[in-house]
Amino acid sequence: MESTSNHGGIQQLLAAEHEAQQIVNAARTAKMARLKQAKEEAETEIAEHKTSTEHGFQRKLQEVKTSGDSGANVKRLEQETDAKIDQLKNEASRISKDVVEMLLKHVTTVKN
């Protein structure tokens, strides 16, 4: 009789372990999906910003070409663009760790 109750207890433990593994797997899958989504959103945002910046640069370049002294203006625009690129790179490197930590915090938090 005792072996029957032990056998039932073992089955309950195995079922609980199986259910726990399913929960962990679901959380892992959700985490990976969220990381993929966050990466895609970031890439889209970067592409949009890059396109917008390039259009602005081309517009300014076109204005310079029509305004006359294009050699000095082109050089000035190139310097401004290089300075802006350096500024954006510095800003990105400064906040990238915080962004990654924030994403990981939100992705690894499992809500019931």
From TrEMBL:
Q: What is the membrane topology noted in the UniProt record heading this document?
A: Peripheral membrane protein
Which cellular compartments is it found in?
Answer: Vacuole membrane
InterPro entries this protein is in? V-ATPase_G (IPR005124)
Which segments does the entry list as coiled coil? 25-105
State the signal peptide span: none
GO cellular component annotations, sorted alphabetically? vacuolar proton-transporting V-type ATPase, V1 domain
Q: Which UniProt keywords apply?
A: Coiled coil, Hydrogen ion transport, Ion transport, Transport, Vacuole
Q: Does the keyword Ion transport apply?
A: yes
Question: One GO molecular function term?
Answer: proton-transporting ATPase activity, rotational mechanism
Report the protein's function. Catalytic subunit of the peripheral V1 complex of vacuolar ATPase (V-ATPase). V-ATPase is responsible for acidifying a variety of intracellular compartments in eukaryotic cells.
Provide the family line.
Answer: Belongs to the V-ATPase G subunit family.
State whether it acts alone or in a complex, and with which partners, per the record.
V-ATPase is a heteromultimeric enzyme made up of two complexes: the ATP-hydrolytic V1 complex and the proton translocation V0 complex. V-ATPase is a heteromultimeric enzyme composed of a peripheral catalytic V1 complex (components A to H) attached to an integral membrane V0 proton pore complex (components: a, c, c'', d and e).
Instruction: Supply the name of the protein.
Output: V-type proton ATPase subunit G
Give the source species: Eutrema salsugineum
Its lineage reads:
Eukaryota, Viridiplantae, Streptophyta, Embryophyta, Tracheophyta
